[in-house]
């Protein structure tokens, strides 16, 4: 599941250690962002661009009521994933078939936000094109970028980042040295040695941090002497200064030389990872006869101690990463050993196995853990698919991986990226029928949820025909199931019921039981209920509920609860319907499943007006209206799914009248999805309990909600 949102919109990471110096640069960036809508910080690797822009963004956060959002692109290699990375950073979940760029532009169009783009140089042309359109279409947007070269767009203010001044460099070195040796002090000769070291390293922050890491074993004077000897060697014995880029590479290389052989080997092998990685993956991918698995932790700890590897805590547990410049150095050494291809295949194989485990474990009490793990590993999963697509003989592995990740695409709100990969891997013809067929039915499923019936029926028909020809009963069952799902959302209820009954029979014959099978039951219950057999619909969903409780499944449960709430409301029990819907809503929102979220909000609005609060019901409808464009055609354009909406509107209009109903809709439309869900989950009693003593009625409401409250009083 995604981590909870910060109180202020945005996704800037917390600083792991103190930011040192750069006061004048921070002031200059603040002034530039006042005058220009695009500001780019450029400089060599390791000079501190990323840290500077994130620090500047944090200091300016209060200027941007819609938040500061960081997009990190260093691990994104495929230009086709650029827009997906930006959408992900903005927290956008778009279930539609439209290009991600359209969703990004629509989101930014009327918002005052700061977009921080870091590490774009390898995607500079595509990134420049996207930023150009965003700045043109979103007049209140500002962009702060960091890369090794500018974007070269009109109006861009470029800030070449110099290395640190002697004073700042000395402060940084002392700060980091104290982290390694708490007794470290800048006194006497030690201060002079440290200052000379900072000058020899040209004030490059990464080089200084690496040098500070050596103080566990050496004095400052010894570090300086050994580094100075290396510089003399590279400059032919003179004291002429190296170019700054070469200074950094020399400092990294010197750290590399001072590492023990097993540490050098692990450093090189770690370069195959994209983004973060965990210990289990390192032990499998990087171990061998020359680096036993049981020694990896100790070797990794040595690299951590020298600041070559950084530790980070995440929702998926303790993880590690290397800075880009350090990773690049390791990759060069790995290439020099001729071992790159083998390590990349081991990396790919590990993540194929991880995806397989995640798919199986999705149907278990560890579903939330699986969601967090898969999301944190997404850069590595992408790299595994890219690796497989480089060889026609291994393309079937990319098809298998893209299909196996259906739970990530569908259950965790990543339909758009899922479709990108599924279509991409299916461009390759492979003789491996099972992998291709799985990718086809998953593509059909994604297309159904995106509201693309043409794309869905094309993929599902191909899957079913090829599955029957190949005798693949499993793929045929999934194709029938998803064709039934398509009939359900396009109001062909009799056909939907027949296909879903057929699919469930096939699943029983196969002994198949997982979240997809449970969803087939829920969808059959929906079709059955819409056709007037509420009793059978309830019985089906109660069975699903029991199975979910037995297996710890939550995602399919949210949809079963939705159907049970619908039935409870039809039976005249709005209190029970509300309890069921609030549980459904909490689960869907936790998995970032927008479809489940917006369906629950729509039905909750009808419950609310039935309970006598027409204004709140209309507000919930307005909140749902804001979400639907990211899901697809509102309520699928379905008469059946749209019936609760129509009934709620009728009752609310009768109670409020046109003007007050419109005001309530508008107030709901101002609520971001997170705020709308939080409001829906909050009971009236909790809201009163949280009101501060003496706080006026309506405090904390949005402008639209305040207008609505005044209208109601009038």
UniProtKB/TrEMBL annotation:
Any Pfam family: HTH_77
Residues of the signal peptide: none
Source taxon at top rank: Bacteria
Region span, Disordered: 687-714
Gene3D superfamilies from the UniProt entry: P-loop containing nucleotide triphosphate hydrolases, Tetratricopeptide repeat domain
Domain ORC1/DEAH AAA+ ATPase: 36-136
Domain Winged helix-turn-helix: 265-335
Protein name, as recorded: AAA family ATPase
Organism: Streptomyces drozdowiczii
